[in-house]
Design goal:
mainly alpha; three-stranded antiparallel sheet; single chain; 398 residues; 13 helices
């Protein structure tokens, strides 16, 4: 290997996936399980590495091909790792194995170690995503060692709510209150038994951030000034769909299911084409569409109600998941036999040519896309999430 091995890497064998009908029938749960396995395998082989060579650890390298800084975990992105845990839980819930269970525990353990100060940080959105992942790991896979972290995160989310506003800020001390923090925070709180707190946050989001023209959820608001940030990101819709579905189940209050129905229609109208979620980027944005798909699957599987309107909502949510998964799979690359997904599921994926143009943290606390977004762990996690979501809805009979 020459002295520039960090920047010049052998070009791997690749084959472009084709958008094609692979059989006369629509892919079923078994096919989606195989594709989810392939997406999992690709992330594990390209991105998962021991933290600082410590035994019993695993963490996701944020880029592939990776820079030296990334391989040494000087860059690691807290909330991306939370979604890595969540995807690992998906795989274990689909087909539990000792290796999958051990991997969840290893990544959670490594997350705490790499965070240096323990489980928490100053960002409520980060902590909410990790709380969701750890709660699922404990509840569905019985991983007891995450209990201390979950308790610490629960305390932070409970204390972070500002009672005069009814929501948590984006980060400690900030004046910005947004859907990407409050949606996952309320989902975590609902699953931890704080239903009233979650209902209050859901009501605040609906009253404050819903765009009256499109019906979509806007990013956030500066308070007490009242200036709204208007972007309507796909993951904002996803977390609110997930939150309102959780509350429809836990409370039986029809207003939560009604909000799901209204928001789903807005997503169909403004964020899909032929049922496929459109757009996408790398960096932090690489996770946005996958998060939407995750919670659309939750709507399909969990939203209560036997009437025709609710049945149609569930069918529509599942249809978006399946159509998006077909598109993403059809536009993938296969690199050394494993899929590489693009950030936009409607466009053919591209092979990263090296580490030049790697994403960088920005002054606002976010991470910019790599020049070729396919190298970003976030984009590949989104593809994995989507494959797991398609398997879940088809296994449920959609």
């Amino acid at each position: 290997m020459n002295s520039r091995s960090d920047d010049v890497q052998p070009r791997p064998a690749l084959r472009r996936g084709r958008a094609r009908v692979e059989s006369a029938a629509e892919p079923g749960a078994e096919i989606w399980a195989q594709r989810a396995d392939a997406a999992e395998s690709a992330v594990l082989s390209r991105h998962l590495r021991p933290l600082w060579l410590l035994p019993g650890t695993d963490l996701g390298v944020v880029g592939w091909p990776a820079t030296r800084t990334e391989r040494l975990f000087f860059t690691w992105n807290y909330w991306w790792q939370a979604h890595l845990i969540d995807c690992a839980v998906d795989a274990a819930n689909r087909a539990a194995t000792p290796a999958r269970t051990a991997r969840i525990a290893a990544v959670a353990r490594s997350h705490r170690l790499r965070n240096i100060t323990g489980w928490t940080n100053n960002y409520y959105d980060d902590m909410a995503w990790l709380a969701i992942a750890l709660e699922r790991a404990e509840r569905t896979q019985g991983i007891a060692e995450v209990r201390g972290g979950l308790t610490a995160l629960e305390q932070q989310l409970m204390a972070g709510r500002q009672p005069e506003i009814g929501a948590v800020p984006w980060r400690k001390g900030a004046d910005y209150y947004n859907a990407p923090a409050n949606g996952p925070a309320a989902i975590a709180l609902a699953r931890l038994g704080h239903i009233d707190r979650a209902v209050g946050i859901a009501d605040w989001i609906d009253a404050t951030l819903r765009d009256p023209d499109t019906g979509l959820i806007r990013d956030g608001i500066h308070l007490p000034g009242g200036r709204i940030e208007n972007p309507t990101f796909s993951y904002c819709q996803g977390v609110v769909l997930g939150l309102e579905t959780e509350l429809a189940v836990h409370t039986g209050d029809a207003r939560h299911a009604d909000r799901v129905q209204q928001l789903l229609h807005a997503v169909e109208e403004h964020m899909t084409a032929k049922n496929v979620v459109t757009g996408g980027s790398g960096g932090d944005g690489g996770l946005f569409n996958g998060i939407l798909a995750r919670y659309l699957a939750l709507v399909a599987i969990m939203l209560p109600g036997a009437d025709a309107a609710r049945q149609q909502v569930r069918q529509s949510a599942a249809a978006i998941v399946k159509a998006s998964a077909v598109a993403a799979w059809g536009h993938r690359l296969e690199v050394e036999g494993e899929p590489l997904f693009g950030p936009d599921w409607t466009v053919a994926a591209r092979l990263p040519s090296g580490t030049a143009g790697a994403g960088r943290p920005t002054g606002g606390g976010s991470v910019s896309p790599s020049r070729t977004p396919e190298r970003d762990l976030s984009v590949q996690l989104s593809g994995w999430m989507l494959m797991e979501a398609a398997q879940m809805v088809t296994a449920a009979g959609f």
